Amino acid sequence: MAIDSYTALENGGEREAGKLMALERILKCLENVTLMNKDNQSYLVIFDGSLLISKLLKSVF
């Protein structure tokens, strides 16, 4: 029984790590698109009522 619980915990951690790695790639892409480009920065901040900002905050907290 303890082995099954440990395996489930370990697999859950791997899944979360995969999600974080995907998020990191997405944020890196956004950084590349917006770096030194005020128009793109403004667009991402105001798009759909600041949806990007609220989703990022929810994912962090």
Automatic annotation (TrEMBL):
<feature type="domain" description="WAPL">
    <location>
        <begin position="1"/>
        <end position="61"/>
    </location>
</feature>
<dbReference type="InterPro" id="IPR012502">
    <property type="entry name" value="WAPL_dom"/>
</dbReference>
<dbReference type="InterPro" id="IPR011989">
    <property type="entry name" value="ARM-like"/>
</dbReference>
<dbReference type="InterPro" id="IPR022771">
    <property type="entry name" value="WAPL_C"/>
</dbReference>
<dbReference type="Pfam" id="PF07814">
    <property type="entry name" value="WAPL"/>
</dbReference>
<protein>
    <recommendedName>
        <fullName>WAPL domain-containing protein</fullName>
    </recommendedName>
</protein>
